[in-house]
Specification:
Layout (H helix, E strand, L loop, with lengths): L1 H10 L8 H7 L6 H6 L7 H17 L3 H7 L2 H14 L1
Helix pairs in contact: 1-4, 2-4, 4-5, 4-6
Length: about 90
């Protein structure tokens, strides 16, 4: 999954992977578990959703199990569904 997200981000015009924290901040989301979990994906653009996905992958590097937490609590599914909605629009 991580390789696919990074590959997509690098090939996409939507986001520069290294700018994920700045994108989150610009959308009022802190790079932290609680803030990212509470983010209302239905109001976010593709750039911010990709930033959330990248941030969740980066969080795993600092905290073992962080990505699993985002998956188990449904955040990753919400983010991917939002990307699908945006793609279909």
């Amino acid at each position: 999954m991580a390789d696919d997200i990074y590959k997509f981000a690098k090939e996409s015009d939507e986001i520069v992977p290294s700018k994920y924290a700045e994108i989150l901040q610009a959308n009022g989301i802190e790079w932290g578990y609680d803030s990212m979990m509470k983010a209302d994906a239905s109001e976010l653009d593709a750039q911010c959703i990709l930033a959330l996905l990248i941030a969740s992958l980066r969080a795993e590097r600092f905290c073992d199990g962080a990505l699993l937490g985002f998956i188990q609590n449904g955040a990753v599914i919400r983010w991917l569904k939002r990307l699908q909605e945006l793609d279909e629009a």
